[in-house]
Amino acid sequence: MVNVTALQTKINNKIFTNLGSDLTLTPQAISTIDKWGDATWTTPSGVVVKSVAWLHIKGREDHNPFGDLQSGEVDMAFRHDQTLEIGYMVSLSGDNYLISEIEEFPLANELLVKVARLRKEH
Fold first, then answer.
1. Which among 3, 39, 55, 82 could disulfide-bond with 31, CB atoms 3.0 to 4.6 Å apart, if both were Cys?
2. For residues 104 and 45, what is the distance between their CA atoms, to the nearest angstrom?
């Protein structure tokens, strides 16, 4: 039987903690409606998290023939317990990306990692 918790801990310590790169993850701006019906937008603060390149060809902005990436896209792996949502902004190597897809990789009904497709903002 696989001890998923022990495997998650090993992945987090050996991959994300030791090899991960820092990037800034910023949730989507949220709006609140006042009593007159006007929206006030607030952008939450970004947090620095560890991530590992899943599929990233630095400096290459054209279609990757060995995968499904389109121009300006990057796949990054995140810890199993990292909060991610489509539309979050990610700052990576001086460029801004939006999370466009999230894939979860399960094992024995638990998550090992999350992989997010990042689309470069122009």
1. 39
2. 25
Task: Tell me the CATH number at 76.
Answer: 2.40.10.270
Residues 6+ apart with CB under 8 A from 48: 22, 23, 24, 25
Q: How far apart are CA 122 and CA 37, in angstroms?
A: 32
Q: Encode pLDDT of 4-45 as tens digits.
A: 899 999 999 999 999 898 999 988 777 788 888 887 777 778
- Asked if residues 39 and 28 have their Cβ atoms less than 8 Å apart, the reply is no
Q: How far apart are the first and last CA of the chain?
A: 47
Considering only CA atoms, give the Rg of the chain. Answer: 17
DSSP 8-state secondary structure symbol assigned to residue 64: -
Number of domains composing the chain: 1
Enclosing domain of residue 74: 4-120
**Tens of pLDDT along 64-76?**
454 566 777 888 9
